[in-house]
Write a structure and sequence with these properties.
2 copies of one chain form a homodimer. Chain A is α/β, with parallel strands linked by helices and about 350 residues long. Chain A is built from 11 helices and 17 strands. At the A-B interface, strand 15, strand 16, strand 17 and helix 11 of A face strand 15, strand 16, strand 17 and helix 11 of B.
């Protein structure tokens, strides 16, 4: 049975605005200063386990060219374009149906395209264990992240007994409040939900047939049309009918045989500008500085220069991002409010900045 | 006796960098949003008292064209170009010698070109009183500003008895510490030293002859060459020999017959970016915002946009200045450190930004 991978790259991501834009979201950015984009890292990271011709990229049709440019090693027919975003469930079913059509059955890794992983060897070993467990039966594997602090911004996975090289999942839980997050952390029985999955195509498609039959039959039609002149029309028709639903809510919270493998491989979802100083080297004052910047007496600040000289004096805990047409200056406490700026721009129809 | 005015416009002023540059200093900027520059305001403000052909602008030769552009109403021959900056004493003696050559004797107002005055009628009345007192004898008049708080950044004038429409000056004192400044304020016997003076040309030139004879004789030679082909050469030779000295230290602290008239005309020396919110209208959160700016939850900040969109989120007490080639983000507590940035640029020979 082949090992295949599905990289989900349809996200729009407003949280790295103005560096990210609707037509150039986070997964296509390099936020690490090495010039390698998030999606390139994602693909390179799984190359010890999956060969390029078995890697499928599901993305919005608007990003098809970006994917081709950034991932010339992936066969163009493996780039699956969604006509519209419908969250992770339709995306995974779409890829699963195509893979099934191509290969019959296969092991299928599902990976977000915009996370970072520090210790790639540990990650690979975790994947291998998950692949084994998925192959042994109709098991759905979710890669859990061993929490290092009481984060309130992630969903959690509650696990119980060890079962071979994995743990039985009891339940998925939504983002907790701080007190609950602290309890989770102390219990040792909770992991962060990373959104990475491993299963056999047969196993997940069976779940779709059972829990989300509309999506199952729709993707079936799409797969039937794959390789024919009708493909684009069928894809668009069926996709537009799909509900927007996450795989967590649509399948994982309902299915049995859910297992998790805890991973401690330095995972980071790079969820906001605050992540930049975590994932990059900082100076003695804990500033991350990129570009033509003169910083005088600054602390714990992220300063991304653009084409001009950026002079920063006496600033603390500030994010400064200079692009050709937009400058952002944001207090670290307020990065969640960047979306309010984008909302205002939308309101005023200033789409050139979004 | 004619009433003449000397506007001193040779200052380089680093404190409004990056809006001000060495080749375009503060006096040539409009910092008030009405598009009228500081030097234009200075000249317009004295027009109730002095006619244009009797206004002399002393400036650095590098700024001669800027002065011509911004003040087309001033006869070009009244723009006196210093070959090099030598502080206020040589500047005043130079202008005094030229005025004496043209008019024999005259009343001479001396004014910085980069201050703001809110209540122009009160200012005019103050000038008129000073002109009367200066005309009555060989009196040197300094316009003092009634202090409104214990400022430690200005020099002070200590005055005693009333004498006609002015007060006798006891002494000039340097920038005090906060405790001393508070004592000055409470005493009611101290004024801020605004650097504005009124005297007869004969009176001030006599003081130069007595206290700064080198400058006196040098400017004499310059005035003798005025209107001849040798003028530029003589000017350059003599000016380079002058010591760099302020009129306060060189004359005012030594001469007798010094009087002051307290003024309460809303004077502001616009000494740093902090002045901007004082001299302009601010929004409900006490922000001053200019240009294409979206500010979300910002307080007490000065945001001067340039050609791009500036988005500012959750910032307090911050100065943001966006120009074509330089962006400045500066904590309000640190505006005095802007000069450190300029020093670093000089060190690295990046003169294009200075």
């Amino acid at each position: 049975m082949k090992i295949t991978a599905v990289v989900m790259a349809g996200g729009k991501g407003e949280r790295f605005w103005p560096e990210s834009r609707e037509n150039h979201p986070k997964q296509f950015l390099s936020l690490t200063g090495d010039g390698v984009t998030m999606i390139q890292k994602t693909v390179r990271r799984i190359s010890p386990v999956v060969q390029n011709e078995d890697i499928f990229i599901v993305t919005n049709s608007a990003y098809k060219n970006l994917v081709r440019e950034q991932l010339p090693e992936i066969p163009p027919e493996n780039i699956l374009s969604e006509p519209c975003g419908r969250n992770t469930a339709p995306c995974i079913a779409f890829a699963g149906a195509i893979i099934r059509k191509k290969y019959g059955n296969a092991v299928m890794l599902v990976l977000p395209s915009d996370h970072l992983i520090k210790y790639e060897n540990i990650f690979t070993r975790t994947l291998c264990n998950a692949i084994v467990k998925a192959t042994e039966g109709d098991n759905l594997l979710t890669i859990g992240i061993t929490p290092t602090y009481a984060e309130t911004g992630y969903g959690y996975i509650n696990f119980s007994d060890e079962d071979g090289n994995a743990y039985k999942v009891e339940k998925f839980v939504e983002k907790p409040d701080l007190r609950t997050a602290k309890k989770y952390l102390a219990s040792g029985k909770y992991l962060w939900n990373s959104g990475m999955f491993v299963w056999k195509v047969s196993a997940i498609m069976e779940c779709f047939a059972r829990f989300m039959p509309d999506i199952f039959y729709g993707t079936q039609k799409i797969a039937d049309a794959y390789g024919t002149p009708d493909f684009e029309t069928v894809l668009e028709t069926e996709y537009n009918k799909f509900p927007s639903e996450s795989i967590d809510f649509g399948i994982m919270e309902k299915a049995e045989n859910i297992f998790t493998i805890p991973g401690s491989f330095g995972w980071d979802d790079v969820g906001s500008w605050l992540a930049i100083e975590r994932i990059n080297e900082t100076d003695d004052n804990r500033n991350f500085i990129k570009g033509d910047v003169i910083a005088e007496n600054c602390k714990r600040s992220t300063i991304c220069g653009g084409k001009r000289l950026v002079a920063v004096v006496g600033m603390e805990d500030t994010v400064i991002v200079d692009t050709d047409d937009v400058l952002l200056v944001c207090s670290k406490n307020s990065t969640q409010d960047i979306k309010k700026i984008i909302a205002k721009l939308k309101e005023n129809n200033r789409t050139e900045f979004i």
